[in-house]
Amino acid sequence: MRSKRSPPSVRRSSLGTTPSRNLTRFLTWTTPLSGGNGRRPAEIVVDRRNSGNSSAEHGILGTGRHEPTLGGVMTLGKALLAYRARTGITQDELARRAGISVRTLRDIEHEVSVRPHSRSVRKLVQATGLSAVEIDSGVALRIDVLGPMIVHDGPRRIDVGAPMLRRLLGLLALRANEPVSRSEIVDFLWGEGIPATYRNLLHTYASRIRRLLRTNGDEPQPLERGGTGYRLTLTAGQTDVLEFLLRVADAAALHEAGRLKASEGEYEKALSLWRGPALADLGPEIQQHPAVVALTQRRMIATLAHADLAFAHGRHHSALPGLRDVAETEPLHEGINARIILALTATGQRQAAVRLFHELSVKLRESFGVDPGTELRAAYLHCLEPVRATPPRTGNLRAPEQLPPDSTTFMGRASQLAELDAFLSASDHTRRAARVVVITGSAGVGKTALAIHWAHRVSGRFPDGQLYYNLHGFSDSVTRTAGDALTAFLTGLGVTSTAVPLDLEARAALLRSLLADREVLLVLDNVTGPEHVLPVLPANSRSMVAVTSRNDLSALGLHADARSIELDVLGRREAVTLLARLLNRSPDTPALSALSDLCARLPLALRIVAANLAGRAHDSLDDYVTALRAGNRLAGLAVGPGGGAAVQTAFELSYATLGPESACLFRLLGLVPSADVSIAALAALAGDTVADTVKLADRLVGAHLVQRRTSDRYQVHDLLRLYAAQLCAEVDSEDDRALAWRRLSEYYLRTAAVLTDQAYPGMLRLCSLPETEGPGGEAHVVPSDWLAAERGSLAATVLHAAEHGPRELSWQITDVLRGYLWRNYDVATWRSMAEAALTAAQREGNKSAEAAMHYSLGAAHRSSGQHPLAAKRHLRRAERMFQDLGMPEGQAAALDCLGTVLHHTGSAQRALAVLERSIELCRKAGFTIGLAKALCTLGFVAADLGLAELARERLLEALALSEELADKHLEALALHNLSQALQHTSRYEEAMDGFHRALTIRTEIGDTEGIAATLGAIGHLSNSTGKKSTAHRYWRESLAVFDRLGHPAAESIRPLLGKRGFASLPPEPRPATISAQP
């Protein structure tokens, strides 16, 4: 067993200075460079002063790699020039401070003297506080070994020459500051072929190295002979090995301190020092030396740590090159390759990720007879998930942290914060009652700001996460429901969208189950009534709910341990202090008190007037107060006697600062049906270009009328949206408002149609679309990214259009999104949109739209698998209406979908008849893609009924059609179902080949549901042929993917595994049924 090692020692550098006491905390690592057997670990020579903190905090280790060319070396002269440029100190002043002549300093800076006397260097170090890495790299020797060995003497590169000299110097540099025994050197230089004159040769080599490394004056010779070997003394700035180890130690310390971004940067700098395998020019055998092995292991550990931090910050691309570099020397390392797969997936290279996994699987089986391990398989399963707008986090599932950012200027509310803290501390976790705190108050009084500020303060008391949801109960956008909040909280806790029950009570029960043994803070913002809160209440007091509302929610006390905190406007001192801080004025400024009173000390109004004044530098406070007193608009926002007029005037004065175009854009924001909006949607709303709209929106941000959420999304406070809507109604004509709304809604429809056509080719359009231009600024976006980002806005547009018009937009958008909602299993959103659009179609008397929405609702219920009766009802209604309307494509699609529902519910014979009818309609109408889909479905059902020849005939026709259509989704489905039919006739080899062809296609196109189905089918076939361990492996993979999707087919796989693997296997497991998209 390897003996336990102490941290490396720290000694004085040749510059004569002592490192800080705190440094030793940062210099630990798990694998000693000496390679074991009792040798002392490396001493690291450093030169740090004027700081008790790590170098990473102050940047004293420079900026990265030391390049092997003269231009890339940081010489002492360059370091001093950079120091003077940074500080503004003159050459004369620096020479005076250091106690050296101006001529000496000039010679050093201009590199006339490349090897200055050590006394001059020490004086410059004391005068500037520069570090060893910044100075030592230029004053003396530097030997880099993290790659081919490179030796510099200041700016001059040294040619070491003879191979034996290079080997000896490389070994000594690799083991810098350690004594290296003669026996180790001899073994390293000659191996088994030791010459008789090895002692003389070794002495000669050492002498020649000393001449190469000659020093000036009283500087000590770095190569010393002592005891039975040699020792090469180098400082931290003289070799990349020590710099690498120091940076890694600093990065680890920063990580432990919670400074993750800084830690990532320090790891990146450390890894940038590597130019290839250590001492790569000395032959492959050097890589087996214990010191090289240990150093390579340190590189691998640092690479993994850097990758995890980069992933957490969404910088997968920055970690990929380093991971690939390490993979060249460790091609089968599970952790490295797992992270490469994750990085490839996150950077849009899913096919490369899948190929890598399969290549590794083959190599592992051929080399070691094992399958990929847990970490590698988890990364593979992750890459099979549907594409998301933002890549999910890697590693262990982290607690949700959904709180909006805290306000940097929050102040006051000391008594309310104390009351909140007291309620939290007094609550007994052993009690069964749920805990709810309700912050009430009028509009703009700061309820949300207080709730968010307090939630951030106590987040440490809720280690299992903080959830946030805004119900928008007091804005004119689409109000969210308790069901919406439950869905958001469940998905925040890791539940997939299709695993979220459709029934409200079932959702509430699932949330209570998830919170039963967790400590989570749930924040519900802008609640209108108790009915929004009751379903969200936990079952016990371990978690807590914080609520903001303008209404009285005292009824919650009947159901929970509830505390209500009523929030009033700020006190006069708090309001004046806030204004003073915002305006950078003294709190004693007389006009501030009058200004705060005119704003009724309402926080929202105070911030708006501060923004107004910031843009009116030439106006005095007194003038502004006079103007504010003259206002009389938006009286409905009054919060007290005399306050309403001031608040409405504060809004008006902000609005008055805008130019005509910005003012128009602000008014039009009152038409937006969702809480936030993208810049492209704003451009469509305004009928302007994106570039011009960005300028206008930024002016609104500057006036504090709009908040920028991300680089391309904006949000408006509900009071300001109300004000914008009122202004729009007053200023803009009805025709102008209708035109702007149509531009916005048609932008959503137009862009969604183009992008869904790209993402889901072959999807049947049942509702005709208006002939408009292309998507403009969204032409080059990734479809899945845009659809995920705009899903809320699209749903809000559908609901708004269904209620207020134009109603046809509600069913057009719903029909366009059918493929996206189906592929992403967002059944709740799909159903709510289709229900609203169905009602709108019925009100308009549009029968074709009504039929399309019945079909959409039937397909949504089919996807959920929870309400087969509802699915059948809607699909039958759609089929009859399409028949009456003379729409054979719609009729055939409804019958195809109905056939899958009938098959799922055990009516396979009826399903067969329905599917034959669908095929007949498709043939008559020339509906080729519908025919291929129906043939695939019928072939599957026929095979399940044992009608092998019928199944084979239909599926071969479907396969031919899919190839003719170049539809990869259909081709994979036909291959899968054909293989199923072949299996039923015991043609196992052909079936296995077909399944693997289907799996390959589905992997290439990212058909996650199809991948899971085919994996499960391969498991069934393997089990039928007696390959039980193979079956078990494929079932595990299939189940993992289905579980991630929340797909009901998981329940057909789970029983096959059993507690011990195979004890519960039936002779012929029933496969999961996967059909074509609706």
Automatic annotation (TrEMBL):
Q: Does the entry feature the keyword Transcription, yes or no?
A: yes
Boundaries of every OmpR/PhoB-type domain copy: 132-234
Repeat (TPR) positions are 972-1005
Q: Which PROSITE patterns match?
A: HTH_CROC1, OMPR_PHOB, TPR
Q: Which UniProt keywords apply?
A: DNA-binding, TPR repeat, Transcription, Transcription regulation
Compositionally biased, Low complexity: which spans? Answer: 1-14
The HTH cro/C1-type domain covers 80-135
Q: Name one GO biological process term.
A: phosphorelay signal transduction system
Q: What Gene Ontology molecular-function terms does this entry list?
A: ADP binding; DNA binding
Q: Which residues bind DNA?
A: 132-234
One Pfam annotation reads HTH_3
Give the span(s) annotated as Disordered.
Answer: 1-20, 1059-1078
Name the PANTHER family on file.
Answer: TRANSCRIPTIONAL REGULATOR REDD (PTHR35807:SF1), TRANSCRIPTIONAL REGULATOR REDD-RELATED (PTHR35807)
**What is stated as this protein's family in its record?**
Belongs to the AfsR/DnrI/RedD regulatory family.
What is the name of this protein? XRE family transcriptional regulator
Q: Which species is this record about?
A: Amycolatopsis alba DSM 44262
